[in-house]
Write a structure and sequence with these properties.
Blueprint: E1 2-3, E2 11-17, H1 23-34, E3 39-45, H2 47-57, H3 61-65, E4 70-72, E5 91-96, H4 98-106, H5 112-122, E6 127-131, H6 138-149, E7 153-154, H7 168-182, E8 185-186
Parallel strand pairs: 2-3, 2-5, 3-4, 5-6, 6-7
Antiparallel strand pairs: 1-8
This protein binds flavin mononucleotide (FMN).
Residues 18-21, 46, 48-49, 51-52, 55, 97-100, 132-133 line the site of flavin mononucleotide.
Amino acid sequence: MLFRGENIQKKNLVVCMTGATGSIYGYRLLLACSKIQHLETHAVVTRSAEETLRIELGITAKEVLKNATFNYREDDFKAPIASGSFNTDGMVVAPCSMKTLSSIATGFEQNLVARAAMVALKERRPLILLTRESPLNAIHLHNMLTVNQAGGTIMPPLPPFYFGMKSIEELVDITVGRVLNMLGIETKMHKQWGVD
Ligand SMILES: Cc1cc2nc3c(=O)[nH]c(=O)nc-3n(C[C@H](O)[C@H](O)[C@H](O)COP(=O)(O)O)c2cc1C
């Protein structure tokens, strides 16, 4: 796995999990990151995400966070990622609940996830939200538009079915690969139509 560009430099990513269904996305993302050289992750798992991890994957946040380089509690506003002075190469919220989306869209920094997202936007760093809810009401849609207009990327985890993947993990990893690719990190997980 390589970073784009000639000089290989350490990268820092913020990876947060919130309580929408689809905890497998955050889990597989952190797992993938843990296998990439020169990549450090700063992870936050909200209390609601702890629940969805337990319900959906039968695992604890502690097990998931073994794949992160650093992790912080959601009320830890002294964490490095709460400050723009701490350099990061971007942030992903996977999955992103409508509650967290709304905190980001309104600038209401009620926890470290929302605070770190506001930092990413103000510092003009990539912010990718794997927003998950269905169907969407006008409030959800407005919030998504607001974050998009502030520079964030709204990327609902909708799997593509044209690559012939056979398992849930394979489908999830296509999105994970796409997210990493958007952050300038090339992996074999990123599939391209028409490219073998
Ligand atoms: C099994 C389960 C699935 C959920 N799925 C969603 C979802 O897809 N989208 C969403 O916005 N909230 C969903 N929720 C509700 C959130 O967990 C809840 O709004 C929570 O307060 C979000 O908090 P957080 O953003 O701080 O993690 C789900 C809750 C449970 C228990």
